[in-house]
Every structure is written in structure tokens, then in C-alpha cells.
Amino acid sequence: MTSIPADASPDEPAAGRPLSLATLAVAAGRPPREPFAPLNVPPTFASTYVQGGPDDYGRFRNPTWSALEEAVGRLEGGRALAFSSGLAAVSAVLDEVPVGGVVVAPVGSYSGTLAALAKMQRSGRVGEVRTVDVADTAAVEAAAAGAHLVWVESPTNPLMAVADIPAVVAAARAAGALVAVDATFCSPLVLRPLELGADVVVHSATKYLSGHSDALLGVVVVRDDDLEQRLRTTRTLGGAVPGTMESWLVLRGLRTLHLRVQRSQASAQVLAERLAEHPAVDRVRFPGLPDDPGHSRARAQMTGFGSIVCAEVRGGVAEADSAVAACRLWIPATSLGGVESTLERRRRHAGESVEVPETLLRLSVGIEDVEDLWADLDAALRS
């Protein structure tokens, strides 16, 4: 019987042909191929290790984190660091801003990021936060002057604005600013910001990377060695380390990322097109629609249009809330990116941006049968 070398890696084919992202999601982050070795890196529940190096405590390293970081890093084309939550990952990157520094951030974007920035501004930790429409490249370029960090979401959460990332990167570079892109809505299978020139990619791994609504985790991916070390130090000293079980769950979920994204994106396209014609809907925000303002940019930068659809219900808050309550298959929930389809009226949250319309519903399309999803949604809207 032919033996497999102990140092053989399943994600480095002998022929030298680069693997697709779909295959890397399955193959990366595996243990060495040794006789009777497990196929998956097992969860290592340890706070303390036998001395033998500088990092012999559980706040510095864990084999389960390392496997997840290797896999996500390969998918993004950089080096990944896992954090205890998506917001912990966001906070670590915001910590790169010098005291009194200037941050450019998208208006109508993830409320957690905007709240963290507002808190930093109130305390004087950040001197100024300039909010702009990231789809307005000229506005971003103007705001970037004198900035230390340009924060991008594309598409934004939940207004679905699509940024011209290469143009934003060019403007930030000219200003000497760092560029961070929150790509949670897309996953690395749909958008790879590092290839477009960004310095940092942030994910709430709770969402698509995990895909099963059972783990809180965040990930930051970079290419620069010094930046990686600074973020690692921030994680270690701040204690924002990921849990072992959470890391294992996200890595397990990552193995089906390609199939989940493929299915949910296809369904999102169908649902967006039908919602655009629905009598109970005023507007649909989805870059896969040809008349969406971000359509051409999304086609140029992304390999798909994602699985988040936002619809503004005709009428008022009562009608929007009634539609959510009438759903039987769609689940009213705040998170997104899971195998199950969820929806919510975003302005129900007190901290949501006033830029978000009161009747906007954010729909996270899962992997159920699209006709079942449509029947439930159509009935709820007509009710």
C-alpha cells in the first residue's frame, strides 16, 4: 500500500493547480495526513499548556483556533485572526486609530460599528467620525482627506449601498489612511477585499462562515506582518479570544459554505425579482436587480450578489410589523447568514440609523425551497 507523506497537505495538489475557493473551504485547515489521524482538527479544551515556548497559555493560542484561522486566511488570501465575536473583531481594528484620530464610516451601516465609533468619539478616543454614503465615491474621497481609517461595508447593512472599493482604496492611500472592509454580507466566496487593495477584512463569523446560528465569533484578515502582530496583541491583552467550541463549530460550518451560498444566492435573486413586482412593496434593495444603483459595481467586484434582500413595505410601521408577524416559515430574528431564512424590521432597534426607512425589512435568505419561501412571504405581505 502506498503511504502518504506525513507532511502532505490536502490543499496543495501535487500537480500545482490552484484550488478553487469552493474546494479550499473544504480542504484548508486540516491536520497533517498521518496514519489513523483524524480528518478534522478536534476541539482542544485547554487553558494551560506544558511549558516549552513563549505562548504556553490559553489566551495566546489554541490548535482549534489555528485551524480555523488557516482556513479563513486561505479563503481571503491573507492571514486570519479569530476573535470572540464580530464586534470584538471590529473593535480591534478601530483600536488602530490613534487617539484623537479621524474615521470615515458608511452612513446607514451596521449599528454596532456606528455605536462603537460614537462611544469612542464621546470619550475623546476618536476625534472625529465622518459618515458618508459609501456609494458616493466623490464624497468618500473628500472625507478621506486627513483620515486615519476608512471603514467600508459593501453592501452596507441594511441599506445595501455598494462601494467602489478600488476607488475608495486609492483615495485612502492618497490620504495615508488604513482601509478596512466589513465583508460579512458577502463571505470570501463572493467578495475578496484584499485583492481589491484593502488592508483589512472583517467578518462576523457568526453569520455566513458558521452558517448554523449556533456560534458567536469574529475574524480579521490582513496581509501586513506588523498590522497582524498589533491586532494579535490587541486580542491577547484585551482578552477577546475565541472559544474553542465556537471555533470548532465555525470551522465545521465553513465546510459547506460554498453549497449554502450557492443555494441562498440563487433563491435571493428569485425572491428579489418577485418582490420588486409585489403590490405590497414600495422598493427592493438588492444589487442583483439590473436597476439597483449598485448593480454594475457588484458585477465588477463580486462573484455574485449575496443572499440579503431588503424590501420596504408599502404603508407604515404597522403594515411592516404585520407582515413579519404573519410569516410562518421565515423566522423573525436579528442575525443573518444561517441555513434558515430570517427577517426583521430593522428600525425596531433603537440604535438603528435614522437613515434606514421605518418600513424596511431585511431578509436573510436561507437554503429552504424557494417556492416555499415565496409562498410564505407573499401570503404574509398580502395579509
UniProtKB/TrEMBL annotation:
Keyword Mitochondrion: no
Catalyzed reactions per annotation: L-homocysteine + H2O = 2-oxobutanoate + hydrogen sulfide + NH4(+) + H(+); L-methionine + H2O = methanethiol + 2-oxobutanoate + NH4(+)
Record GO biological process: cysteine biosynthetic process via cystathionine; transsulfuration
Top EC class, one word: lyase
Pfam families, A to Z: Cys_Met_Meta_PP (PF01053)
Positions bearing N6-(pyridoxal phosphate)lysine: K207
InterPro entries associated with the record: Cys/Met-Metab_PyrdxlP-dep_enz, Cys_met_metab_PP, PyrdxlP-dep_Trfase, PyrdxlP-dep_Trfase_major, PyrdxlP-dep_Trfase_small
Cellular component, GO, one term: cytoplasm
Domain of life: Bacteria
Family per similarity comment: Belongs to the trans-sulfuration enzymes family.
Name listed for the protein in its UniProt record: homocysteine desulfhydrase
